[in-house]
Amino acid sequence: MGNQSFRQSMGWLHTWAGILPGWLLFTIFLFGTAAFFQQEISGWMRPELRGQTVSSTALRAASILLTAKAPDADRWIITLPSDRGGEPLIATWKSGIGNAASSGKAILDPTSGREIAVRDTRGGWFLYRFHFELRYLPHWLAEILVCAAALAMLVAIVSGIVIHKRIFADFFTLRFGKGQRSWLDAHNVTAILALPFHLMITYTGLVTLLFTLMPWAISAQFPDRGSYFQAAYPPGPVRNPTGQRIASLSLNKAVSRARSLLDGFAPARIVVERPGDLASIVQLWPSPTQIGGASDALYLDGGTGKVMAIPAVPGIAMASRSVMVDLHAGRFSGAVVRWLYFLSGVGGTVMVASGLVLWTVKRRAKLLDQNRPHFGLRLVERLNVGMITGSCAGIAVFFLSNRLLPFDMAKRAEWEINCLFIAWGAVLVWTLARPVKRAWIEALAACASLYALVPVVNDLTTTRGLFPSLMAQDWIFAGFDLVMLVTAAGCAFTAWKLTIHKPKDTPRRTARELMEAAA
What we know:
By secondary structure, the protein is of the alpha+beta class. Helices cover 61% and strands 8% of the residues. The chain contains 21 helices and 7 strands. It has helices at 3-19, 22-35, 38-44, 56-69, 123-133, 139-163, 167-171, 180-193, 195-208, 210-213, 216-221, 225-232, 251-261, 316-329, 335-366, 375-404, 412-432, 436-461, 466-471, 475-500, 508-518; strands at residues 75-79, 89-95, 102-108, 267-273, 281-286, 298-301, 307-309. The protein has a 7-stranded antiparallel beta sheet with strand order 3-2-1-4-5-6-7, with helices on one face. Strand 4 and strand 5 form a beta hairpin. The radius of gyration is 26 Å and the shape is globular. The mean pLDDT is 88.
């Protein structure tokens, strides 16, 4: 195969590897990009929370509350927010099994330790989980679809690198108002600008789904996946209850003990087995704040604080996978790196969207009568509008519903999510019934309006609007509202550019040259 035919083959592969899973890839990139700020989004969606990091006062209050409400429980579970906040301190207790099981839960302010009422929401956690769980689908099917899309993305990236003759020149080339040429420029610039990020996030994303992608290593050695996890992550020490009561190790002492033993330890969850019993055990599970850090628990004696088991040092394979998963999620990153992740993710989202639009623009340019495309092309064009703008509108409605749904509404968190998909479906149906240019303009205008409404509704329904937040240097709330306004401005600007755009008749020869340049 000559060099020319090889590049043409790579061009064909790049096109179809990108276009077939294109709508799914756009959804994964869009929600995954938002998830880089999932804690900050969760914080905005819980305006009742004032504190961010857990104080010793709050841990002491949790100990007192659990001792008072559930002294004889089988287990206490204390879930702590990370240093980025967004979550309350949650104290849970459980006793018994089966029909005799009982449990309770208290939500505490992470700074003061006071019991507080917080609106029911899944916050940024939902955006994170949706980018690989794809709500309403069986878990196994969602994993297979996401794996297939990620594999196609990796093929599209590698083949895209091969077919590019002028990667350096394309980095500086972005021409507006040139029709198909402009879409190609936008696709190239967003792809090249964050090319290392695209390669890293796609490959490490595949690593996170390793056991779905390549299950044979487990099936060849273990009877089922559960047996593998039992061997790879063996359970910690177990004790039978003695019935002899002792003073429990305080939560503050347990955390201090863990920090003295493990560098940089930050607790994400504390589990106290058989609290107050001589056989009590305290488990301290780490927060993923260090790249490649330990994920196993530290086990302490529940009375004396004596170490019973420390996190095992992972082997090379396990450590490599841990580093790649951490690279993908970016939870270790500080503010600057997190913004770089976010902006690169925005670039990837635009890259996929511009590729989808470019595919339809190129097909329309090939038609003898561009004003009368066939049914298949008309359908794909409108589905592009509905999937791209509908998902964006849905996220805005997700935020708006957080402020507008009644505080004590039953299944409130579920209805926030339902509102997202109702809005997404409504935009999709609307765009299917409209001429494609009008569909783009109207859907983008709707997105601009919805995102502009978010800070307005936030200001009307809470005391943490944009200006009060700026005055109080509450950067999470101020930053969130500013991002909403920037997004609204971007959608409005794009809708305005489309409104004033007058397409020009493109000579057949020039269109062919453009297609050859794109190949």
